[in-house]
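Interim report, section 4.2 (structural modelling).
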Amino acid sequence: MDAEQKTWETENLPKPLGVWVKRLDKLRSPDVLAPLAVGLLVLLIWDLGVRISGIPPYLLPGPILVLQTLVRDWGTLFPALLITLQITLTAFIAAAVSGLLIAILFTQSKWIERSFFPYAVILQTTPIVAIAPLIIIWLKNNTFAALVVCAWIVALFPIISNTTLGLNSIDHNLSNLFQLYRASRWQTLLYLRLPAAMPYFLGGLRISGGLALIGAVVAEFVAGTGGARSGLAYQILMASYNLQIPRMFAALLMTTGLGVAIFALLTALSDFLLKNWHESAVKREN
Amino acid sequence: MDAEQKTWETENLPKPLGVWVKRLDKLRSPDVLAPLAVGLLVLLIWDLGVRISGIPPYLLPGPILVLQTLVRDWGTLFPALLITLQITLTAFIAAAVSGLLIAILFTQSKWIERSFFPYAVILQTTPIVAIAPLIIIWLKNNTFAALVVCAWIVALFPIISNTTLGLNSIDHNLSNLFQLYRASRWQTLLYLRLPAAMPYFLGGLRISGGLALIGAVVAEFVAGTGGARSGLAYQILMASYNLQIPRMFAALLMTTGLGVAIFALLTALSDFLLKNWHESAVKREN
Amino acid sequence: NGNPTATNSSPSPNGSLDRVTYGTNWYAQAEHGGFYQAVATGIYRDHGLDVTIRMGGPQVNGTQLLMGGAVDFFMGYGSDALKAIQENIPKVTVAAIFQKDPQVLIAHPDVGVSSLEDLRGKPILVSAAANTTYWPFLQAEFGFTDDQKRPYNFNLGPFLADKGVAQQGYLSSEPYKIQKEAGFEPVVILLADQGYTPYSTTIETRQEVVANNPDLVQRFVDASIKGWYSYLDNPEPGNQLIKQDNPEMTDDVLANGLAKLKEYGIVLSGEAQSQGIGAMTDERWQSFFDIMAQAGVLPQNLDYRQAYTLQFVNKGVDYYKS
Amino acid sequence: MSLERPAITLTHVRKAYANGTVALQDMSLTIQESQFVSLVGPSGCGKSTVLRLMAGLGTLSSGSIEWGEHQSQRQLAFVFQDAALMPWATVLDNVLLPLKLAGQPRSKALPTVREALHLVGLDRFAQSYPRELSGGMKMRASIARALVTQPSVLLMDEPFGALDEITRSKLNGDVLELWSQKQWTVVFVTHNIYEAVYLSNRVIVMAARPGRVVADIAIDAPYPRTEEFRTSALYNEYCREVQDRLSEAMEVKQSTPVYSQVSPRPSI
Amino acid sequence: MSLERPAITLTHVRKAYANGTVALQDMSLTIQESQFVSLVGPSGCGKSTVLRLMAGLGTLSSGSIEWGEHQSQRQLAFVFQDAALMPWATVLDNVLLPLKLAGQPRSKALPTVREALHLVGLDRFAQSYPRELSGGMKMRASIARALVTQPSVLLMDEPFGALDEITRSKLNGDVLELWSQKQWTVVFVTHNIYEAVYLSNRVIVMAARPGRVVADIAIDAPYPRTEEFRTSALYNEYCREVQDRLSEAMEVKQSTPVYSQVSPRPSI
Ligand SMILES: Nc1ncnc2c1ncn2[C@@H]1O[C@H](COP(=O)(O)OP(=O)(O)OP(=O)(O)O)[C@@H](O)[C@H]1O
Ligand SMILES: Nc1ncnc2c1ncn2[C@@H]1O[C@H](COP(=O)(O)OP(=O)(O)OP(=O)(O)O)[C@@H](O)[C@H]1O
Ligand SMILES: [Mg+2]
Ligand SMILES: [Mg+2]
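Predicted structure of the assembly:
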């Protein structure tokens, strides 16, 4: 076991403790503080802009009003957020898994890729609104499933596209190496293509995270839900129809907040998975 | 000039002629034939499915009916396609340029990236429907501009995200080299970061091409007015309102056809730009 | 799962109910009151029906849901029914709850607009759907032009921001919101009073249901109409259900909606006053068809009679009140 | 030593790359089982190309390459000219790879891997990632990876070029010992003439563009080769011959004058 | 030759990487202007690290590195251990890069570039992409890139390791000639002891982990160095000394026995 250790040349750090202190510290790090500072600045400018231009709140409410509304209506908005979140997550996970599988299928043979990639594009460029009735009819009256399918369609393509690109970008020498050692298709996939495609896949996830969310919102527009089990889209629409624009902005704020949270999580995941080797995440010392 | 030639060890090919023959030949190549074959197969299955299940055309029309309608209504659908194309292209080019610039800005400093990336996410996750009124008011009566802005918002994020990833993934040794030769920020960008990010940028473009199109369609749903200068979305909506489902499918077919064409063009562009060096496009011989 | 078209069932002797889904055209509101009332007060149940109301929404395509079997009855619209015939879609209108279409145009006060003629050449915010309904009528009858159109997304902001524009609206909805939120009373022009005369908030179903299961249709129509009488009388039970389906709905909006329905005789006017709610006549269908054909929206030779059947309505007020 | 059973036979092999470069022209060569063959030749003459083709990487433009009955590409190990390590895996996992691909369970493979790592002096870096290694250490990891399998044929493309003389010398000895123990067939590309002569049964000198064999020199000296051999006149003679052939090969194609001060004195 | 004006001064330099590896420990070293200094040492001892730090790449953990008044990091050229070519650019454009970065117009730079390409024998591959080059050709392109600027300080990290002896010898001669013409300060990492002694004023022997200087041997022989020097007893003496120091340095740290058959005989 001695061979796995580098202790004598490693500067001693109390590892487990250090790690946790670091993690907590992260919340006070520039990564978090910088966007917050900019956020405050933006809010300030927004507030001043609204005040100075005298734009009426039914067009663009000031941030304070929006936040007040958010706090006041938290009781109805938050459950709606949870439902949207549920749809988003389900669709996102489905898109991640299926996108990865499809990309893997595509890279099994140039023929499959050439033959089916255009159909992935068709899926991407078909307006949900046009096919929503078909989906609803097809799924009978399982509205949740219909919503998830719509959001999934929206989120799928970037994952397929980026992952396929990644799976096709493997280092030539390494692919030779695997060929040499007679790696099976499956082994090449598992030990070479997938790790090499990881940065691209994660990049695709970061794009799709937001799309799954926006897909969930759009899906609710086109598949029509309401009532107790309705998500943020319903809140946005109703607030808009009822000219409760501050409330609409509060709901929008929640949507985008959720989007940013998803993005931040995916970025953290990406950094974690790539920190040991990929240039985009490694901290280089020279 | 002799040094630039490798004639004596190059197998002689009548270059200019050969190139053209090859280009024409490409149309008969598997790249084109394979998806066409699959396309025909899909159409066949679709047709059979519709026939056997007896599903009525106002729910899901068969492909022949759709094609007939497409031919019959070509006179109104094609001009609409051109307008959608115009919006799509304008928004796409705007997204490509601005996305690239924003990504460049982001990679100028970790601080800028950390501070502003969340706001790019906000742009991505704001439902167009909700902010369309603001855009319309803001752009007064310029409907075309409003549509382009909406489509641009939809198409922007993947380019920012992928390009940023690419700009951050430059080879460590090369970045050292540039540092060593005291390359200015601008030179590093031009000669190192941009070429290195090219595969990622092009990957982003391929995702955004379809999104710009779908963005143009959605934009027209929410901000379009119809009439003479209306695009495919209007045709889809009207066909849907008029219950002309075959016509709706014909319009959808045009949309997705346009999407596939944009994708194919971007793929060709990508292959052309990367053919000399990037693993995803190079034809390796060993 | 209880698709009523499959079996030719009449009110089952053993007391089991026929399950039926009714699709509306929007989030629950006063304009849907009678249907909710019939659910709430058990009128449907008394007619052997277990009714689920499925709300619509801004981009929900109800006809497809109806024809695809996702709903059994659908809240339709006169011009829609005619277009379905043109497209050979076998759906049929079996009752018309609203004698008048509540479609209005709204303008700012004190800008000198009081009639449709005054709006000629002015920018108007209209929804995309208007292009297939009242807009061709306005073009044909009042000389409106396409470049007047501005997109309307059911958000009042753009209208309020610009005194120069007018917009479309729903009688019971936008005017009240404007009054409430912006504090002024807008000019409201009801298109039904200007010669635009489609039935609306109708009950549509598939032709095959009418053919195979007329009894079910009759029971649904009867119960719905009874629900409407009940709602006009005492809306409370229905309103409860509406608020349950659409939590954003408030009492004052519901009250206003009902008041407007009554004030303008949307439900109870014309033949409905004698034949009962839901009444339809051949003449009315024909005159509306003529208007649309004149506007160029429908072909002159369309067999518009297929769009509806009078079989289930016009039973007289007493029939429903008994 | 050698039983004169052909292990790899190249017949009129020609390789032209798509850009028109003719890397190999009409190259014929038979490598016997258990031979230790060194390939020397000017930079860019096609040594790596030959090795890759032998390993079945890439296609021939014409000619053929055949493997002897007792040999197969299956029991092949290859040290690439560049280390070709997976950046996402630790040194340990990189070296483990061939065994993993052969289906060996990790626990069974680990001792072999550790032994190989020890051989190349990387024990302490098993858990490091390639980016944390120096150039020579990467190459050593790559060598260890080639040695963990029990190859019957070992193709090595300048494996020791990036190593200091002492490490190199040690690894030379190790490889030679393993070779004589295990009866490997070895094809070894090197730029070090002395290393080539010291190690091999046979040194093949190639010339450039198009790559071809210009000399095939049998080194008739018994194994194990001792310090004595290294200081012998025979050794010097062989080195000089290889050197001369190489100079000739280069003078034919290259017009730039080759420095003539090349010392004839051997060294590893 | 050397005017004894310090070009680069390292004082108590320590470099520990984030993973805890101490690459350099308390290293002090002064390199004079116009000196030709070779660094030799076992694989992984920190030679590349020192070179990078001299070039201003990476941060010191402690200590300092200072450049002489007449020198500056601006007039620096560096040959990296791996070729570090831009894969998207042709060989020509790769070699042109430093001049482009210095703001020279392409037309003015081209003759210089062609000259450098000719020097390394890549004339015919100006329009090739790096992936179309052999390992040695890549390295030569990298050397050409370092030579196109008019550096006053040249840092080279095993530039000739991947080259055949004859090309290597030619380039040795070329570099030596350029050096004496242009009064460069050269720091040269090599694994070839004979090359080190033949080329340098001064050979510095390093030991590994933590990397440090264990010997600093002045090679007192006049330039230009001739064939005579190469066969002289003095040359042999120097080689042996470097060799011994190196062996010592390795034996201290490494427990694996170092083969003692290392021939003392010089060669390039
Ligand atoms: N992928 C490729 N495409 C085009 N030409 C290539 C390719 N690979 C190698 N070549 C060319 O083939 C010739 C032989 O290359 P090879 O790598 O076999 O040389 P080598 O003998 O290994 O040289 P070195 O000692 O420098 O490694 C060279 O001229 C090179 O430019
Ligand atoms: N980025 C890095 N992170 C961590 N450790 C590193 C890094 N780079 C180098 N090292 C370690 O620092 C030590 C010195 O490395 P360096 O590259 O300087 O060696 P070297 O003398 O150039 O060796 P070689 O002759 O093999 O090229 C090695 O032990 C290596 O593992
Ligand atoms: Mg080679
Ligand atoms: Mg090194």
